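so my prof wants the structure for this chain in the tokens format not the other one, which i didnt know existed until like an hour ago. anyway here's the sequence
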Amino acid sequence: MSATIRDVARRARVSETTVSLAFQDKSRISDATRQRVLTVARNLNYVPNLAARHLRAGQSRTLGVLVNDLTNPFYTRMVRMVEHTAESFGYQVFVMESQWDPGREAESLRRMLEARVRGAILCLCEESDASFDILGDYNVPYVAMDSYPRGFKGPFVANDVTCAGRLAAEHLVAAGCRHLALLIPPSKGRRFSAFERLMDGFGPALKAHGRPFSRAQVVDADLSIAGGMTGFASLRSSRPKTDGLLCGNDLCALGVMEAADRAGVRVGPDLAVMGIDDLEVAALARVSLTTIRQPNDRVAELATQALVRAIDANEPVSIQTALEPELVIRNSTRLKGTP
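here's what i got, hopefully its the right format
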């Protein structure tokens, strides 16, 4: 049976209130009393119930973080930076995922808010307005991270995905590609604002350089290695002349590279392949994936800082910014006959 606050108070010969104060910074008890209580607590393996304390105080030092897919390294890395930044302000984080399901998203958000989080950092699946309705009901400050829906007027820190699409198109044209394709999730996922903005950058940039672009060049491929392999198979049957493609993320691009290798298609000399994210594996010599590096750590850091500072100042979150990405050129886009 775990020790209680009453056990610590009895052993340290103080009141339960004094025990509680010993775990709070800048409380009114003396340093000597605090150290005596903390020593007793350690000896008894006592852990204070922070949730109960926050409930009594009517507030917490916890931020909610809601993302679409924790198995995707893209989201995992941003969550880690949110946690690191929050800790520097004395906050902890409560993380949940929607798995791209709007119903699960709404339920996860409701659970976070019922746990009395002070604010929320959100990567939404954008298939329903229910999450914004819930936020309005609870009157909790929030900031959208990485992407935000069309017409969104609230606070956000995002990646400039339109710029990413343009950079990718310009590079593939410069690499000598003439028959291009874009691999992104199926029609339902294409309504996700990030992919809409990706096409906004990719298509017009191709046309500006004399390359055609139509919806027929957009191929279904989930944001996974398996999705990339399936997308490559579809591409081979529907558009066999394709010599350059941009994938919705690095995982999808890795799947394309694996499927191409199995089919005897040389990535680089025969088929230029690009991803987005610049995962650690992309730089490995055996992979050498050309990609768009997004400043995800900085996006997460800015979003967290803006939210915490607004909470602590009791002011609205007012940030609205999109950070530009960087082109990282490696061997996967070095077509035969090009420098």
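also thought this was worth mentioning. The chain has a mean pLDDT of 91.
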